[in-house]
Amino acid sequence: MTQRRDYIDELKGLGILLVVFGHFMEQYRMGYSFVSASFFCIYAFHMALFCTCSGLVARFNPRKLVTQQLWLYLVGQVIMFVFRAAVLRENFAESGGALAALLLPWRHMWYLYALVFWHLTLPILCWLRDRWRLPGACLGLALAVGLALAGGLVEWPFTLVRVVAFYPFYAFGVLFRPQLDALAAAAAEKCSLRRAALAALLVGYGAYFLRVLLADPILDNSPQLFHDVSYAGGDTVGYRVVFYLAGILTTAALAVVFSSRHRLEGLGRHTLAIYLLHMPILAALIEFKFYDLMRGKPLAVVVLWFTLLACATLAPLNWQPVQTAFDKLANCWYKRK
Question: Any idea where the Acyltransferase domain is (predicted)?
Fold first, then answer.
């Protein structure tokens, strides 16, 4: 396995851990400053990391787009639809009807939804990267950021707001693939470079953590954390600019730090079942009042509780038979040649 694949799998492994723990701590973030600060730090970059990794491994293949990516999204939506009807007992008439519930992404499914749209731009991004090298990559990223910033002015239909808002990170992964590969390869040979990147991350996110921790009252800032609304809904141009800068720089620094590690790559190769199913499990835990059991308890108890719930979710979803079943489901129509 090449060095490039190693570091990407490491980053994907880290990313899926942050996704799960970020979601599982969210219920307590407005009641505990420590949880809030941890949540803010995770949401500053975890989806930037995931989107960039998707760009790093993307190859334009119309057949794969239809028989794997679109298929996987539709299968996932059917699973979520059945879960919402049977477990959450949702009244779909109150949220746009059953057809909308079936076709439009529910919660975390926005990411698989976005990948279908992002994949359509691959020929342009790859042309800019391969034809014009670094200047073309810079131009492509500038256009992607400009599109995302302008997109905040639009009240997007069909849950497209995040598709546009998070696009720059995917574009960054595609456009700067050669530079990130070279950076990771160089860092794997230089311990001093890895230590410098780790120190920068600790200082930067340590300061951010303290800022949120000491805020009074506890910060909410949901529009700027999730980027799921337009500027009229509460997001801002300034915060998006900072979000893009922080996400790109953090991802590059993490590529350096994890360039020679091999602890998370196994997890990173098998993120599908975890990503797809952790959210309905979380929704069921909330629905059946598991989170209410520890509300108002001491911080240490709360942290231990949501960590236990997250680990209890990760363990079976990372079980090899589960991973194999979902890989077969995802690729049942798409056969690699």
Answer: 6-313
Sorted by where each begins, the domain ranges of the chain are 3-330
Q: What is the pLDDT of residues 84-107, one digit of tens each?
A: 999 999 999 988 899 999 999 999
In which band, very low, low, confident or very high, does the pLDDT at 262 lie, cut at 50, 70 and 90?
confident
Alpha-carbon span 6 to 266, nearest angstrom: 10
Q: Give DSSP secondary structure letters for 141-209.
A: HHHHHHHHHHHTTS--STT-HHHHHTHHHHHHHHHTHHHHHHHHHHHHH-HHHHHHHHHHHHHHHHHHH
- How far is it, in rounded angstroms, from Cα 336 to Cα 75? 20
Tokens of 62: 């119309």
